[in-house]
C-alpha cells in the first residue's frame, strides 16, 4: 500500500521534472539569442546609428537610419493595404460566413500564411517589379501586405466569433442596421483582441527579409520615394552581415538588436491588450 | 380596443423543423399579452418573428402574415430595420453593451445610428431611467460601466434602452427568468406601468407571472396555439383540457 503511494509520488515528481526541462529547453535558446545579440550589438549602438545612413566603404561610423525609415514606410504601407482587407474580410467570414466561398477563403488564408515568405517575394517580383520595370518600396509594401492579410484575417475572425450573439441581437433590436452593428458593436467589442492580432502581424512583417530582397531591394541612401528601391532594416542587417568588413558586422549586430527590441516591445504590447481583454 | 399586432396563419420553419404551426391571433393595443407553454413549444420563435429577428438565421422561413397597425411586416417593400425601431425587444439574459457606460447604454439606439445632441441625450437618459425606476440608483455614476450593475439593474437598463428609441410594441423574452425574486417584482411592476404607452408581448415560463402581469394569455403547445383569451378566463375556466393540465401543473 505505502509502496503504491511512493511510486505514484515519484512518477508525479518525474513528470513535473520532465515538463520543467521542456520549458527550459524552450527558454534557453531564446535567452541565448537575446543575450548574444545584446552583447554583440550594444557597443555599436550610438546616436549616429539612429540618425545616419551607412558610411561609404572604408569609412568608420555611419548608421541605419535610412533602413529604419524605409521599414517604417513599408510597414505603414503594408498596414494601409492589409488591415482594411484583412479586417473587412474577417467581418465577412464571421458575420456573413457559412457559405462555400467562406470555406474557400479560410482555406486560402491558411495556405497563404503557411507559404514561405520567399515565395511571396518571388510572386510580388513577377507581378509588380517586372511590369513596373524596377524595384520599389511600393512592391515591398504589397509583398508584406500579402503576408499580413491572412494573419489579420484569421485572428480577427476568431475574435469576432467570440463576441456573444446576444450583443448583436441587442443592437439589431434597437433598429441599428446590420452593417453598423458589425462595425460598432461586434468589431468594437472584439477590439482589444483584434489589436493584439494586428500587433503580432506587424511584428511578423517587421522582421521579414526574403520578400523584400525581390521587391524593395534595399538602398544605401535616404529613400523616401515609394516608387524607388527602398532601404529596410532587415535588408541592411542581411547585406552588412555578409559583407567582409568587421565594422559592418558590428553595425549588423546593432541593427539586429534594434529589430529584436522592437519586436519584443510589440509582442509585449500585444500581450498587454490580450490581458486587459481577459480582465474585463 | 385596437389590435396592434395581428398574426394570420403564421408558420415558421427551421430547415425541416416545423416550429410554429398555423397560428392566428391578435394582440390588443396598450395591453400585456403573455405567451406561455412548455419549453420548446415555439413561444420564443413566435415572439422573435414579430420584429424579424429570424432574418439573421438563413435556415428560418416565416410564412403567413404578421400585421403591425394593419401593415404586413414581411412585405417585400418593408425594411426590417424600420420594423425593429417600432417593435423593440428585451431579452432573457440582460445584455447591456459591455464597452459602454450606463449613460451610453440608454442612448445606444441613437449613438449607434449616428449622433445625438448633448442636451437631448441628457433628457432622454434621465426620463428613460426614471421610467424604469433606475434613476435614483445610478444617477451619481452614469459614466461608470454598465457591467457594474446587478443583473436586475442591468435588465431595467436594457428596458430603458429599448423605450429610449420610442417603440410602439415591446417584445419581452422571459425578461425576469435570470433574476432574483425582488428584481422580478420590480420588472413586473414596470411592465404594468409600461402598458399605458406600449403594447407588450411577453413570453414567460412562470405561470404566476403570466397571471399577475398580463391581460391576455396565449397557450402554445408543440408549435400549435391551443387556446388564447383573457388571462382571467384562461386561468379560471380554460376551454381546453390541455390548458388546464398545464396551468395546474399536471404536465410541462
From TrEMBL, chain A:
UniProt KW Flavoprotein keyword: no
One Pfam family cited in the UniProt record for this chain: BPD_transp_1
Coiled-coil region(s): none
Membrane topology (UniProt): Multi-pass membrane protein
CDD domains, sorted: TM_PBP2 (cd06261)
PANTHER family membership: PHOSPHATE TRANSPORT SYSTEM PERMEASE PROTEIN PSTA (PTHR42922:SF1)
Protein name (Swiss-Prot/TrEMBL): Phosphate transport system permease protein PstA
Automatic annotation (TrEMBL), chain B:
CDD domains associated with the record: ABC_PstB_phosphate_transporter
InterPro entries noted in UniProt: AAA+_ATPase (IPR003593), ABC_transporter-like_ATP-bd (IPR003439), ABC_transporter-like_CS (IPR017871), P-loop_NTPase (IPR027417), PstB-like (IPR005670)
Record bears the keyword Disulfide bond: no
Gene3D superfamilies in UniProt: P-loop containing nucleotide triphosphate hydrolases (3.40.50.300)
Domain of life: Bacteria
Pfam families from the UniProt entry: ABC_tran (PF00005)
Domain named ABC transporter: residues: 5-247
GO molecular function terms listed in the Swiss-Prot or TrEMBL record: ATP binding
PROSITE patterns to which the protein is assigned, alphabetical: ABC_TRANSPORTER_1, ABC_TRANSPORTER_2
Record's protein name: Phosphate ABC transporter ATP-binding protein
Protein species of origin: Geomonas propionica
UniProt lineage: Bacteria, Pseudomonadati, Thermodesulfobacteriota, Desulfuromonadia, Geobacterales
Amino acid at each position: 500500500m505505502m509502496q503504491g503511494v511512493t511510486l505514484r509520488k515519484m512518477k508525479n515528481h518525474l513528470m513535473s521534472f520532465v515538463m520543467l526541462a521542456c520549458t527550459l529547453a524552450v527558454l534557453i535558446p531564446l535567452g541565448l539569442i537575446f543575450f548574444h545579440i545584446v552583447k554583440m550589438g550594444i557597443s555599436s549602438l550610438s546616436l549616429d546609428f539612429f540618425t545616419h545612413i551607412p558610411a561609404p566603404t572604408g569609412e568608420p561610423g555611419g548608421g541605419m537610419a535610412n533602413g529604419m525609415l524605409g521599414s517604417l514606410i513599408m510597414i505603414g504601407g503594408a498596414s494601409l493595404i492589409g488591415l482594411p482587407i484583412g479586417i473587412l474580410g474577417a467581418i465577412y467570414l464571421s458575420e456573413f460566413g457559412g457559405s462555400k466561398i467562406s470555406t474557400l477563403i479560410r482555406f486560402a488564408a491558411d495556405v497563404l500564411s503557411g507559404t514561405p515568405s520567399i515565395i511571396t517575394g518571388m510572386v510580388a517580383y513577377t507581378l509588380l517589379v517586372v511590369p513596373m520595370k524596377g524595384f520599389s518600396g511600393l512592391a515591398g509594401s504589397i509583398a508584406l501586405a500579402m503576408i499580413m492579410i491572412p494573419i489579420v484575417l484569421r485572428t480577427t475572425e476568431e475574435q469576432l466569433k467570440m463576441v456573444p450573439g446576444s450583443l448583436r441581437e441587442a443592437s439589431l433590436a434597437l433598429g441599428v442596421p446590420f452593417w453598423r452593428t458589425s462595425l460598432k458593436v461586434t468589431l468594437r467589442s472584439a477590439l482589444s483582441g483584434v489589436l493584439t492580432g494586428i500587433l503580432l502581424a506587424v511584428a511578423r512583417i517587421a522582421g521579414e527579409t526574403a520578400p523584400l530582397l525581390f521587391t524593395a531591394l534595399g538602398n544605401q541612401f535616404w529613400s523616401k520615394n515609394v516608387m524607388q528601391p527602398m532601404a529596410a532594416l532587415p535588408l541592411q542587417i542581411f547585406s552588412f552581415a555578409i559583407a567582409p568588413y568587421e565594422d559592418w558586422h558590428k553595425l549588423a549586430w546593432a541593427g539586429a538588436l534594434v529589430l529584436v527590441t522592437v519586436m519584443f516591445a510589440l509582442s509585449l504590447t500585444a500581450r498587454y491588450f490580450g490581458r486587459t481583454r481577459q480582465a474585463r | 380596443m385596437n389590435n396592434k399586432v395581428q398574426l394570420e396563419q403564421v408558420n415558421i420553419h427551421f430547415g425541416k423543423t416545423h416550429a410554429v404551426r398555423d397560428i392566428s391571433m391578435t394582440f390588443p393595443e396598450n395591453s400585456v399579452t403573455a405567451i406561455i407553454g412548455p419549453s420548446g413549444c415555439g413561444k420564443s420563435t413566435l415572439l422573435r418573428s414579430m420584429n424579424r429577428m429570424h432574418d439573421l438565421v438563413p435556415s428560418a422561413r416565416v410564412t403567413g402574415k404578421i400585421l403591425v397597425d394593419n401593415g404586413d411586416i414581411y412585405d417585400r417593400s418593408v425594411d426590417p430595420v424600420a420594423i425593429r425601431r417600432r417593435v423593440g425587444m428585451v431579452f432573457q439574459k440582460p445584455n447591456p453593451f459591455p464597452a459602454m457606460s450606463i449613460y451610453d447604454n440608454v442612448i445606444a439606439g441613437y449613438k449607434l445610428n449616428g449622433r445625438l445632441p448633448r442636451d437631448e441625450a441628457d433628457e432622454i437618459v434621465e426620463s428613460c431611467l426614471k421610467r424604469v425606476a433606475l434613476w435614483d440608483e445610478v444617477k451619481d455614476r452614469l459614466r461608470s460601466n454598465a457591467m457594474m450593475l446587478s443583473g436586475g439593474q442591468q435588465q431595467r437598463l436594457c428596458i430603458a434602452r429599448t423605450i429610449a428609441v420610442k417603440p410602439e410594441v415591446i417584445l419581452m423574452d422571459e425578461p425576469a427568468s435570470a433574476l432574483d425574486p425582488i428584481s422580478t417584482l420590480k420588472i413586473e411592476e414596470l411592465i404594468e406601468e409600461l402598458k399605458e404607452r406600449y403594447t407588450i408581448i411577453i413570453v414567460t415560463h412562470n405561470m404566476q407571472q403570466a397571471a399577475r402581469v398580463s391581460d391576455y394569455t396565449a397557450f402554445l403547445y408543440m408549435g400549435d396555439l391551443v387556446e388564447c383569451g383573457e388571462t382571467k378566463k384562461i386561468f379560471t375556466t380554460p376551454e381546453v383540457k390541455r390548458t388546464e393540465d398545464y396551468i395546474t401543473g399536471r404536465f410541462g
